[in-house]
Structures
1.
Amino acid sequence: MAAGERSHGLTRRHGLALGLSAAAAVCRPFAAATAPRRYVLDPVRIAEGVWTVYGAQEAITAENGGAIANVTLLDTREGCVLIDAGPSHRFGTALDALARDLTGKPVVRVYLTHLHADHSLGATAFPDTVLWAGPGLRTDLARFGNDLASGMYRVAGDWMRGTGVPKPAMEAREGAEDVGGRRFRLLRLSGHTREDLCLFEEASGLLFPGDLVFLDRAATTPDADLPRWRTALRTIADIPCGLLVPGHGPAEAGRRGIDQTLAWLDAVEAGIGAGFELGLDVTEIMARPLPDWADGIAVARYEYARSVMHLLPEIEADRLPNLSAL
Amino acid sequence: MPAPNPAASPVLRSAGRPMPNASTTRDPLDSPLWPSMAERYLGGLPAIFDDRVAVALPPVTEDQTQVPLTVDARAIGPVEELLVIADLNPFPLTLRLVPTAAQAFVAFRMKIEQGTPIRAAARRDGLWHVGGRYLDAAGGGCSVPPVVEKKVDWRNLGRMRGRVWREAHDLRLRLRMTHPMDNGMIANVPLFIVETLTVSDASGRQLASLTLSEAIADDPTLTLLVAGPETEALTVTARNTAGNDFRARAAVPPADAQSAEMQGRP
């Protein structure tokens, strides 16, 4: 699979529906639909001066307002540092208030791990000059950010009001960054998306691999490159961390998230590959069973169905034999 | 697809085959456009809504230029014609399959302009059996130019990839053709699509013929179930709107070779 083959598929997918769940969006009482939306952030202290706001282990819906990804706040002498910013301007505004509540300081840095809307669009609540992103992400936000936001408005609705496209002014580079007594080591990896920023904070031993690691929630593959993703996971596994904070799912010590993400990618790839070898088309492969252990993984069937749409065309382009012309 | 349960629904017998309850003439999808669709495409013949005509759609539409679907009307028995109709698409009649010696089955990918009912209508003995589902989608799969200009592989225009599998009663053909499906709605991109496609056996007997519309996705990718267990190869012919003809041969695996391969699979 050539890297170039992926790029034109990227464009519409992002914008047009990152994980919408139409089924869950209906059957909502009218009163709830018209009530003002407010995110209730419930920070969990995971280390000294560090709190994580856990995302719902769900698809993006008009109920959860896209608040499905984890966001972490770290107190430093200079101010609060955020890892990711949530799905919307409103969420970002709530994070800003939460940072002041928890640390008594303003947000001085927001590190964006990757392009996907549930992690990045809340950054519009902060000044561009505190937003840090890798060069690939800065480019991709400029290119696809509008589609990304449009897709989110469509799926999450009013929650998105006021959300635009973040324009990080600061480039996150590989290496160490000292911020108010904390030391962040930055790694530019890829595989979940074209560029995935992984952060390791030495003072606390916390590791933030973004969506390279999912735990107890199925990994998403709209922009995935599975070989690169596996390589990135091996890199992450070698980092001697205390606690791993995945992009989705609980923070844990140990490598359960890494192993589960690897196992999920293997299961998805094997399932789609086996379906291809049987001559099945997209919706037929979607209907095939997953391994039993996937029962314990949130939104497994839904993400598997999405992955079939993402990955089967690549397998076809790669493995369907050329027919001899007559 | 669920088998019809004769105990649960009143079944009339006509011409030796089960008929669904004739009261199912009200559109279960409540589409205001359905009457005009029926008038335009069903040739004045009567139509009933019939769950045995199954349309399988993905749980979410992520890429409106490549929406995968499978239509399976095998439970009706042999049909003369199978249509796929998307009421709210600019080109509602998406595909027409004449399964001369093939099953009433087709899987493919299409473009979607907006959320729409997607129907399949199977004609048997002068009666249309219509099934379908509503597909939710954002706008613009047909008329909005891609953000990044799409790359067309002109050097390989018309190249076909494919493979044939033996199934219990049929040959399963999967086919992917390198060809844009430019529908003429995007400025400065004229109409340029593959219009017809036929599948024949090695003796030249036609097994299935398809008419593809502007709504079929780029690089048409099809799955068909055709007869012809005796043939050693299938011939696929296609013609585009510029009058170019494309022909290719897909070898049919020997019966024993494939079963050995199946057993060898972990």
2.
Amino acid sequence: MGRYVARRLLQMIPVFIGTTLLIFLMVNVLPGDPVAALWGDKPPDPAQVAQIKHDRGLDLPLWQQYLHYMWGLLQGDFGNTIAGNRPILDEITAALPVSARLAAMAWTFELVVGIALGVIAGIRRGRIIDNSVTLFTLLVISVPIFVFGLLFQLLFGNQLGWVTPTVQNSEDMAQLLMPALVLGLVGLAYVARLTRTSIAENIKADYMRTAVAKGLPRRRIVSRHLLRNSLIPVVTYLGTDIGTLMGGAVVTEGIFNVTGVGNLLFQALARREGAVIVGIVTVMVLVYLLASLLVDLLYAVLDPRIRYA
Amino acid sequence: MPDLTKTETADAPDQAAEVTAAEPRNGAGAVGKPRSLWGDAWRDLRRRPLFIIGSLLIVLMLVVAAWPGLFTSADPGSGDLANHFLQSPNLTHFFQPDWFGYDGQGRSIYARVVYGTRNSLLVGFGVTITITLFGGLMGMLAGYFGGFWDSLISRLTDVFFGIPFLLGAMVVLNSVDQITVPVVIGALAFLGWTQITRVMRGAVITNKHADYVTAARALGAGTKRILLKHILPNAMAPVIVIATIALGTYIVAESTLAYLGLGLNGISWGSDINDATQNIRNNPHVLFFPAGMLSLTVLAFIMLGDAVREALDPKLR
Amino acid sequence: MTSMEIKTGSAPSSRSGGDDSGALLDVRDLHVEFHTRDGVVKAVNGVNYNVSSGETLAVLGESGSGKSVTAQAIMGIVDMPPGKIPQGEILFRGQDMLKMSNEERRKIRGSKIAMIFQDALSSLNPVLSVGYQLGEMFRVHEGMSRKQAKAKAVELMERVKIPAAKDRVNDFPHQFSGGMRQRIMIAMALALEPDLIIADEPTTALDVTVQAQVMDLLAELQQEYNMGLILITHDLGVVADVADKIAVMYAGRIVETAPVHELYKRPAHPYTRGLLDSIPRLDQKGQELYAIKGLPPNLLHVPSGCPFNPRCPKAQDICRTEVPPLVPVTEQDGTDLPGRGSACHFWEETIHG
């Protein structure tokens, strides 16, 4: 087990380097000049621009810039913003807890409601309840998340007045409820579908027949035999979805004015602050990689047939 | 992008397996046609309401995209602020310019919804065809040849999977001056091809070790023949399902980007929804119609993909 | 009705009580059908058989003959829908189980009637330890604690001769060999010392050498507990050693019943004769092996008349039009042959000719 984790961590290194390199390259082909942007509409002073670029190493070849960046990362230095010269890490750590909280709430919602709907539909396959759940998930998957966001905002915020249309205080969990609901809706539908399919497949398995033949009560057959086996693929999805939720928060945070990572990213894009974008994606890649490792480890707990070699 | 593939191998024999096993056999007189995977799937599909509704909708969308002029006489680009500013819809005025009302610039929402279809479908099909060809090829290489190629391609897909899809697309589109249809297709395909690669690789590996491939090899079939005649037709099933559903999700991606202000030049449902947010509070109709059309299009592809998946997966019958 | 009551329970078994009313299990005119999208599959068409305590009934037939579906109907594990039992009775100790409530039936399953399945690997839950799966029987039916149940599980595993049972009780099914897994299935069936065990091709998936060991174990335990045993198989070799009586099934019907050795000596149905003739024999070395021509019938379209008629070497016109009922078989002089029956219009020629 320990050796497996070590090996997986080692394997992550090239992926991590590759992903940061890719996003670094993508960001640095941005045509806009963040330094010149400091002057706003006024014509920038070329000498000063050159000086700032020199100080920050922005005049070096791209590969050298990347190496500098990675070297800084190893020491926990994400660089500074160009406008304001603030440490990027500080900006990210200020925004991250908000997004993390939002993602965690959305994730819990996905897990609880998604699995519940999937189990009900899977067990009653072909019945009305199954068809309703299927229809519901189809609709949820088809309606883009920003449409849901706008609709919910319009309905619960403006029309019914149950919540404020936008979040006033991003630290307040109660206010994050609506954005979290919107954020988790699509994942919920996928979890429900996956659970349903998995249940419907496993319900026909030989070991289920054995469980019935053993004279076990229905509750026990479902909870101990069917669920244990059916939830294995669902766990994989839920694990990788942590990363998706963090990334997908851009839209939701924008609609509800939550000051999280998505919000930060938006500002960075507008100001063409490439280093901030790379920093955010770097953090998200780390989250994604660790989540997938966690999923693989959890897999072994759930499925004894999987062995780590 | 959610990965919809499932690769676990729970075998689920029917209770009536013993009975059904005898079904295709012919006793006295009863003649049944031999069934193939695709033939069987087709028979099954024709009876599925999801499939019928989905494909009818898609055909309709394609016609609208190809000949938008057939459906409306209004010009989607020109607005009459003086007379039509945010005018409410007239739901009985079928196919008239004021059917869905007017937007904040006095333009016919119905006309814009009609003319927006083309770009959405172009992006959806463009991305899907590109990633199916390129990603599929990569997956086949990785799955069939294994070894070095597999390691290389698999690590590459890992790298791309690490980048949040929407963020990556935002970065790319933010850097270009002119967001045209090919640019959007390029950006989304660049970030999305790995999805198909993974599915194809998995399917090829599964089929590579199947007995019928071993048998074909024992009979002296060459690499090319085995790949094209034996493995590909069987590995295509999951790829087609994923591609169909992905098509819908790429349409969503395009409109989401447009909503975020990174829309393509020309009419896009996403951009119209972005415009709508300014007037949404008092005139929700500016949101409803483009959003409804967008959702309906996506729904059509997802229904189709779902129906095909269920038809191709004998475990779910 | 196409079949009549046959008193197979009065077979001259050394161990059985003899009397029909004492039968542990009595299946009467059982029909099972499956409603599929291609039509109604009539899997079981009026089956009658019974088993007494300590007696072994072998049910013989090809795949699709309905032998497994009958067993599943007895266990109450036929999927409904698509399955349906339009008529028949399954009497267990004189009570019709088809009329019982779900809860009553559940309490019988596992504790009074247990089943051993063919493929132990897929029939055992892959993600639960064997100790848990064995212990579950005691926890559910006898309300034992987790700890007691585990101790019982170890005991059971020793009982079916699994070496190092104590160390292996927490292992998972995939960590055992095929033979050991089948022993675990047997242990599970045996856990609560049921009155009747149904073994559905218990050795088919195993190596030949292991087959004999598992069969011997099963027979030994059956004698020890004086259980009734229904052995479902397509292997005539397995039957000869352990069964008291045989019911041969074809297309959802019983076509012949007989005490085991009588059947081998003098089959009274052309189908049984065909099966026996297709066993390779040492004294016929060098000759071509006999095979019944054709395939088992499609249960969606069972041939009219005797379902075996398209494959029967002796088929006459009457065989294509009239379904032969299961009639008692007698000696040429009319002496009763207890427990024998045949569903062939020409049973007399078959057995005596």
